[in-house]
Design a protein that fits this description.
Length: about 230
């Protein structure tokens, strides 16, 4: 078991410093070329890999151009165009309805506030945070996806379980200038080393500060269960 720093803030600082060194080019991995494409890619990425989403959006973004195209597409046709994505029927319906609202209530533009974004179908706080950060350069919070959730708990940064509560705690201890990058660093480390089922603690740059480190700790703090 590693020994975490004395306070959650200093623990967050060392985590950020080490991960920045490890992943200097860490950034969003979804592909898009405008705000609407970003919004659609993020809606599609719920419980689906970014890689799969990028493959599917390559042809999707060629076929559909602008919110009217999605809003006017028949449900079956759009669903069929997304059929390798998890929950493609629901996601097709969210996209059609969100685009309808964008056309009717926002002059065809993706809104730039948390409340307007979360009023759109299929858009929760996590999706809205990603769109605000990468589409509008507005950083209002920290995107808590499954990797951020798992790593924050494993590393002793929070004991909260729900993403919204984790976000609030992280916002207290992660310096505001790192709110956006913190997510990408956690995602990169979660993919490369600290995977859900079989983290490579031996090869981890955080092993000496991680209270879940498998060598000594019996417990995975992310799940609260023994390793
Ligand atoms: S890989 Fe192991 S040591 Fe590294 S952060 Fe994950 S649980 Fe901790």
């Amino acid at each position: 078991m590693g020994t975490p720093r004395d306070t959650a803030s200093t623990q967050a600082a060392v985590v950020i410093e080490r991960l920045e060194e490890e992943y200097p080019d860490s950034t969003i991995s979804l592909r898009y070329s405008n705000r609407l494409e970003l919004l659609i890619a993020v809606i599609l990425s719920a419980q689906c890999t970014d890689e799969r989403v990028n493959t599917e959006t390559e042809h999707l973004f060629e076929k559909y151009d602008g919110p009217e195209d999605y809003a006017n597409a028949p449900q079956e046709e759009l669903a069929e165009d997304l059929n390798s994505i998890t929950y493609y029927n629901n996601k097709a319906s969210y996209i059609r309805s969100a685009c309808e609202a964008i056309v009717e209530e926002h002059d065809g533009e993706v809104p730039d506030t948390m409340s307007e974004l979360t009023d759109l179908s299929g858009v929760g706080r996590k999706t809205a945070n990603v769109v605000l950060q990468h589409g509008h350069d507005v950083v209002e919070g920290i995107v808590v996806d499954t990797h951020v959730q798992r790593l924050s708990r494993r590393l002793g940064l929070t004991e909260e379980e729900r993403p919204e509560a984790i976000e609030q705690e992280l916002m207290e201890i992660v310096p505001e200038g790192y709110w956006q990058q913190f997510t990408h660093l956690c995602i990169d480390h979660g993919r490369a080393t600290c995977s859900a089922r079989n983290p490579d603690c031996d090869g981890c740059v955080l092993a000496d500060v991680c209270p879940s480190e498998k060598g000594d700790s019996r417990i995975d703090l992310a799940s609260g269960e023994p390793w």
